[in-house]
Amino acid sequence: MRIATYNVNNVVSRFDPLLDWLAQEEPDVVCLQELKAEQGRFPAEPLAQLGYQAVWRGQRSWNGVAILARGAEPILTRSQLPGDPDPSQARYIEAAVEGVLVGCLYLPNGNPKPGPKFAYKLAWFEALLAHAQDLLASGAPVVLAGDYNVVPTEADLYANHSWAGDALLAPQARAAFQRLLEQGWTDALRAVHPDAAPWTFWSYLRERWPRDKGLRIDHLLVSPDLAGQLVDAGVDRWVRGEAHASDHAPAWIVLDR
């Protein structure tokens, strides 16, 4: 079972690259973030023609999350994070797919910091921590996948970087991510690639893609029972190099199910 996460950075304007990736890689489950489309503008019919059923929560101009399933119907369980400090923002959706509960999330960026956006990031993280603990307590096999907007460690970005004051590297955000792992979740990319987990994001600025100045901010966390079924994980870097690409590349895991 191949489960992927991809910040598509506008599902309408970047629909063709999305289709190309789906057709070539054929993931079984896909978590999408930054749809940047109202609910009624999500391209459900073209995706269905490719074999993907979907649940989604759109938002005009910003945010937006979706879960796609190939040859199966995702069963919606939540369209909002419990305790979300601003439920008007479309940042979380959850569905059951072929015996796995999949949570798709788009954690707030938090910049500039300090300020209300950073405070919202930390408050959202606290709500996620509480829900993640409840998910573990349920005993269900769970994957929490998405754009966490957190670079967990200095090993997760290029050397001699200029991101030190950014909310993605803030000690509070890194500590919150570590608290997730301490609950019992496994960072799948790091588990499969302990020495050099692949980057998932390259800014459009300062030629960071052609110079390979990347960050790892898209993560797939798996519950303890699924950690034993994890057989592979990686990033489809080629997608970032396509014309009119998102600044993210899809990250994925393979479970032996």
TrEMBL record:
Pfam family, one: Exo_endo_phos
Co-factor requirement: Mg(2+); Mn(2+)
Coiled coil: none
Record key words, sorted: Hydrolase, Magnesium, Manganese, Metal-binding
Protein's recorded name: Exodeoxyribonuclease III
Positions annotated to bind Mg(2+): N7, E34, D147, N149, D247, H248
Biological process per Gene Ontology, one example term: DNA repair
UniProt-annotated catalytic positions: Y106, D147 (proton donor/acceptor), H248 (proton acceptor)
Limits of the Endonuclease/exonuclease/phosphatase domain: 4-248
InterPro entries tied to this protein: AP_endonuc_1, AP_endonuclease_F1_BS, Endo/exonu/phosph_ase_sf, Endo/exonuclease/phosphatase, ExoIII-like
